Fold this protein.
Amino acid sequence: MRADDVKHVMATDPQPQRPESPACAGLVLIVDDSADARELYSAWLEYSRFQVLIASDGETAIHIAVENRPDVIVMDFSMPHLDGLGALRGLRNNRRTEQIPVIMVTAYPLATINRSAREAGADAILTKPCLPEELERSIRQILASRRNTKLA
């Protein structure tokens, strides 16, 4: 993991603020090899009261997810090193991360990609270009659904 792969939460920082705090809507890990996409989604979600971690590839994403257990992971499908599908499979095969909801974001709106992502365990799939408002709405829906399931 490179130092520039992690933003906002460093080893010396206190644990990320969890969503039980009224000031925080949740902890989101954004995984995308595009610095522009990471910055756009990160800025929007932070403005919307989410705490954000970022990674630029699948390997780093798995490491960050195991260490921080975010509430939701937003994962690009196509990335170098370990792509989104491989990272998703890695997350689903780890006890610490197997239940974390994952939203796959892809520029390839093909049925085979959507099917592959669903079979690997994606909770939602969004097509790029994806507006930050649409991403936030999807995150909030997943978090609300999880809360309702726990209450039932």
Observations:
- The chain has one domain: 24-151.
- The radius of gyration is 14 Å.
